[in-house]
Amino acid sequence: MKKPVFIGSAVALVTPFNEGGVDTKKLKALIDFHLAHKTDAIVVAATTGEAATMPDEEHLFTIRTVVEYVDGRIPVIAGTGSNDTAHGIKLAKEATAIGADALLAVTPYYNKTSQEGIFRHFQATAEATDLPIIVYNVPSRTNLNIAPSTYKRLSEIENIVGVKECNMGQVPETVNLCGDDLVLYSGEDGLVVPLLSMGGKGVISVASHIVPETMHNMVESFINGDIKTAAKIQADIIPLCKALFMDVNPIPVKEALNILGWDIGSCRMPLVDMSEDGKAKLAEVLKQYDLSFHKMA
User: Fold this and answer.
1) Would you state the CATH architecture of domain 8-224?
2) How are beta strands 102-106 and 133-137 bridged, if at all?
3) At residue 297, does pLDDT exceed 70?
4) Catalytic-residue membership of 164
5) Taking residues 65-87, what's their average pLDDT?
6) Among residues 2, 26, 152, 164, which one is catalytic?
7) Is 25 annotated in the active site?
């Protein structure tokens, strides 16, 4: 049985930018916010953190800043995925040396590969570190899917412990093949409870930027056997989940945080700000929720 890196809700943390690069003051404020509001783990410098726009030095600086500031209070999972296996291995080794608790590694994108290539890519990454690795399957971004049969092979590697899954339709087959040898995390905020019902342990979440305690409580309720409460929470957050993905992530969540007073800046190009109409629709959805606790920002 593989040990989960965390149980509950991990935030796929945005990276606040300013003219000089990473805004470390705002980054630490976000961490304080999540520590105060029940977030169970932090994923840094991954998709929502805009790692694709970060030179390696900045990428690793951001991981180091988060690791040092969190100081062991909750797990820090470093995004180290790449479509270049050698580059991903380099980032994995660096993040290991920095002191991350685990790694999140996305499937190779753009050049893509075969199922054998996926296996060898993650196998090579696992051999380069002793940290637990969560693989990230997001076909909508990579145009590449990890097949359940490949998960079975990967689950036999000791430090490949879990998957952030966005292809929910194949979860039952994955569970059938892998059992407790692969920990499942939802990569879809709107489908957390269905994944938990198949034995999943939590979510790597965008919505947790806005409703961190709600996301934690949803998973905790389910784990504790209160399925009715978990299901109600899941249904209640659907409008928010849809709003946070009305444009390319992380554009809407950064805009939502700015609406709530965080002043974390915009996304880096090629991502651009939402239209004024989109901003207005997002603001209307946010009004459906009690977000007064964000005033501490």
Assistant:
1) Alpha-Beta Barrel (3.20)
2) parallel
3) no
4) yes
5) 98
6) 164
7) no
